[in-house]
Structures are given as C-alpha cells and as structure tokens.
Prior knowledge:
Structural class: alpha+beta
Helix content: 25-40%
CATH topology: Glutaredoxin
Strand order of the largest sheet: 2-1-3-4-5
Radius of gyration: 13 Å
Number of helices: 3
Shape: globular
Largest sheet: 5 strands, mixed
Order of helices and strands: EHHEEEHE
Distance between the termini: 17 Å
CATH architecture: 3-Layer(aba) Sandwich
Amino acid sequence: MTTITVCxxxxxxxxxxxxTLPPQxxxxxxxxxxxxxxxxxxxxxxxxxxCDQGCTLAISDHGKLSYVLGRFGGDAQDAGxxxxxxxxxxESGTGQVPFRQWPQGVKGHFIARxxxxx
Length: 118
C-alpha cells in the first residue's frame, strides 16, 4: 500500500522565523488525511530532516520507487496534488509515475527519487 509520510515538525520559512507559531507539518498531515484516497495511507513522523524545504513528505511502498517532496505550504491545494500523485504511485507497479500524469501542484517539489530495496 502506498504511504504518504508527512513531517509533522516542518515549518515554512515564515514559521521558522517565528517560533511562536505551530509547525505547519501537523496541519499538512490533517489536510493530507482528508484528501487521501483508497489504497493510500497517511501517517506522520517527527523530522524528515528537510528543514530548509518547508513542508516535506515521502511517498513509498514496498518494492516501488520512493519519492521525497518538499517546499509545500501545507494547504488543501497542496494536499490535493500530493494525494493525486500518491494515487498514481499506488496504481503503478513500479511506483514510477509518467511526467504527463504529474499534477501541476507537485511539479518543482521533488527532492529525491529513491530506488526500491532488493
């Protein structure tokens, strides 16, 4: 099953400057949970070590390519685009999603593509 793992301690640049604000990662987790589709699970974890990348997440599944994405503000529009990409990931046998299927909202947000473990 494709899993979206969201960094719950992530902060946007504005959030890093003002530590009185809560991390945007928690709100992004809630947005993604609301946008998730069948076949996609959403979970949170503390610190994916992408602190300079705004809201960061990973999309993964056993035996498939994994993706790390960041530079999100964490709003509902971001969550919808990530959920759509995760659905395509879930439907793919390898996890590879053709560029023509990428939702506009994820373009420019990829940090890494990680090959599956043998």
